[in-house]
């Protein structure tokens, strides 16, 4: 999975999480619909986000 896709997924999720507006939700949904790989990128980004929130290291999640 390209790092750029994971970074974009993380950024879109962070925007939606910080400000759960219809616009932010639609932007994430539209991005997810553009490429089947985007869903996997979001999955990776959310796993990393969850690990960071719980205080665990993130390095070994990428590529899982």
Describe the 3D structure.
- This protein has 64 residues and is mainly α.
- It is 75% helix and 0% strand.
- It is built from 3 helices and no strands.
- It has helices spanning 3-18, 22-34, 36-54.
- The mean pLDDT is 89.
Write the layout of secondary structure elements.
Blueprint: H1 3-18, H2 22-34, H3 36-54
Helix pairs in contact: 1-2, 1-3, 2-3
Query: Low-confidence runs (pLDDT<50, min 5 residues)?
Result: none
The H-and-E topology, N to C, reads as HHH
Tell me what portion of residues adopts beta-strand conformation.
Answer: under 5%
Mean pLDDT: 89
Give a quick rundown of the structure.
By secondary structure, this protein is mainly α.
Label this structure with key terms.
0% strand; 3 helices; 64 residues; mainly alpha
């Amino acid at each position: 999975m390209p790092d750029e896709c994971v970074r974009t997924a993380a950024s879109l999720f962070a925007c939606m999480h910080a400000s759960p507006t219809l616009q932010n939700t639609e932007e994430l949904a539209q991005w997810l619909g553009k490429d089947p790989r985007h869903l996997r990128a979001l999955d990776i980004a959310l796993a990393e986000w969850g690990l960071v929130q719980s205080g665990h290291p993130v390095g070994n999640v990428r590529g899982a």
